[in-house]
Each structure stands twice: as C-alpha cells, then as structure tokens.
Amino acid sequence: MITPPLTVGEAFNLRRAHATTASYFLGKQRFNCHFFTEQEIEFDLDPRDVTGPADAEQLVGFIRDIGRITGKSVSLTHEGAPFAIIARFDPTSESLIWSPNLSIGENL
C-alpha cells in the first residue's frame, strides 16, 4: 500500500514509479484527478452522476473552487476532446461561461 501524497509535488514524483490518480467524492459525484503534467491536471467525472440541480450546483462550485485556488482558468470538456469545451471558468473575472460552441482559442 502506498501512502497518499501530501502535496502535488509528491504526486508528480510518485508517477515515475506508479500510476497517480486520486479520487475525490463530492456528494455522489466522483472526481478522478490525473496528474499528467505540472501545467495541466485533469479531473474526470461520470456525467450520469449529475442528475439534478443540486448536483449541477456542486459541479459548478467544484469548478469555481479549483479555479480560485489555483488562479487558473478551468475548462469542462468532453472526454478525450480538450478542444470541445462545454464550460470555462475564468478566476480573474469570476465568470463561468457555458457554451457548446466555445473553443479553446476564444476569449471570455
């Protein structure tokens, strides 16, 4: 059994020898965190876990919290399609924009 890392830096060091995925639960929603690069950390979720307004509010809160804590924009995309952005949160303007047509190169 591996002791979970206490910092993101430790998670990146572990990935040299182990797969590094951390799972977190927010209500019934499970967020799997993948540490690919220090510039991009990916969370995935099962959209079937978002079944009503309360679940959607939790998801929005999670996106906003990650953006505020990291000071970086957060994009919600379709799986395997990083350019197919569903929503993006900008921590500078505190705006969350939902758009099926928003692409990565567009300004918010």
In a nutshell, what does this entry contain?
With 108 residues, the chain is α+β, with helices and mostly antiparallel strands. The chain has helices spanning 8-14, 53-70, and strands spanning 21-26, 29-35, 41-44, 74-78, 81-90, 95-98.
The overall average pLDDT, rounded, is 79
Low-confidence stretches: 102-108
Please report which band the strand proportion falls in: under 5%, 5-15%, 15-25%, 25-35%, 35-45% or over 45%: 25-35%
Order of helices and strands: HEEEHEEE
Biggest β-sheet: count, sense, barrel? Answer: 3 strands, antiparallel
Radius of gyration: 15 Å
Shape: globular
Q: What's the arrangement of strands in the largest beta sheet?
A: 1-2-3
- Distinct helical segment count: 2
- End-to-end separation in angstroms reads 44 Å
Helix content: 10-25%
The structural class is alpha+beta
| DSSP, total strands | 6
Task: Describe what you observe in this structure.
The termini are far apart. With 108 residues, this protein is of the alpha+beta class. It is 23% helix and 33% strand. The strands form 2 sheets. It has a 3-stranded antiparallel β-sheet. A 3-stranded antiparallel β-sheet has the order 4-5-6.
